[in-house]
Amino acid sequence: MEQKDLFEDDKFTGLENTDNTVIIEPPSRLRRTFTALRYRNYRLWFWGQMTSLLGTWMQITAQGFLIYELTHSPVFLGYVGFAAGIPSWLFMLYGGVIADRFPKRDILLITQVVMMVLAAILAVFTFLNIIQPWEIVVLAFLLGITNAFDAPSRQAFVNELVDREDLTNAIALNSTMFNTATATGPAIAGITYALFGPAWCFTINAVSFIGIIIALRKMKMKEFVPRKRNRSTFEELKEGVHYVFTHPVIRTIVILVGIISVFGLSFATLLPAWAVKILGGDATTNGFLQSARGVGALSSALFIASLGRFKFKGKLLTIGSFGFPALLVVFSFIHWLPFSLLALIGLGASLILVFNIANALIQTLVTDDLRGRVMGVYTFTFFGFMPIGSLIMGTLAEHFGEPTAVITGAIVTLSVAISIFIFMPSIRKLH
Q1: Phi-psi group of 325: left, alpha or beta (phi > 0 → left; psi -120 to 50 → alpha; rest → beta)
Q2: Does 1.10.1760.20 match the CATH number of domain 29-429?
Q3: pTM of the entire predicted model
């Protein structure tokens, strides 16, 4: 593990009183919030990822509005989301096995380069004005394949950048960087799209990958010691899946995340159509909607990070699981932009409570030798089920309207949260 080179004595500050007694003062809230940045490797990861994610969110926002402009169909928004996520079903569990077998940094370097190339292809096709809806779907599918190998390694990689006791803080800061990009990237994309067109959004994303590639190459990691392999890939994959589904707490958390991914988070697929049909806006409106969700998520992530090594993760998970569907219902009835933005801020905050705490709890509970495979199952649940939700939401919106689709998802999500509250009370007692 890389040695900490800042705030080395950050846990407690001892001050000598006039009577020679020692007063122990806890670290300040600011220091607790950014504890993981003491680690050089994590700092490189943080700033490199921040740059890359800004570009990624610009592309996500511009791509969604471009496909809606080309087709004027909410169901086609679902097709793109489905194409991006379906590779998770095919490759992500195997990606978890790969994450346990090979150096995670090497895997991430490969995936980031591939993602950069795909973004560049999308930019060139758009600049040449030859981009077609089916081409966007194909590129989304290829990006999904890459992400299926990237996500398990990315989730498990954080454990190699900080000490285990600071893992929850690092995960919270990961969420902070992600949602800083979510808060700013879409708004920048909306303005860039309106002024210069979508091709420049895709170009900026391609260039942004340079930051994380340089950061990964500059890290000083421990020498990788490969595990002894006396079992097949399928047997190792099966072991990871079996571990998840025989561990009652991890199983329940994974089910909660899966349901929210299908019936809750997929509402975001409809935001380009919502911006135009419900709010009477344009590409800039779409960017503001996406950014509002990011502002709420960023605030929530900073709040979690500021708590330090807290002992009430289960309670926060429960609050988020109830707060999200309740706010989703509120959002579905709002047809005025300012109130829509406020509701999305709340939605983003409650989503991060669920996903951040779920990630931290699973990584705390799982053993190191199974970490890659278990995080493969977790990320599969997140990315694999979301495209199904996108397809469901797009289809419901096409036939019954966007508000009805959102309310339906909220009711299903709330029902699962209530069931867990009643039948798994141990979840809300988790530390």
Answers
A1: alpha
A2: no
A3: 0.70
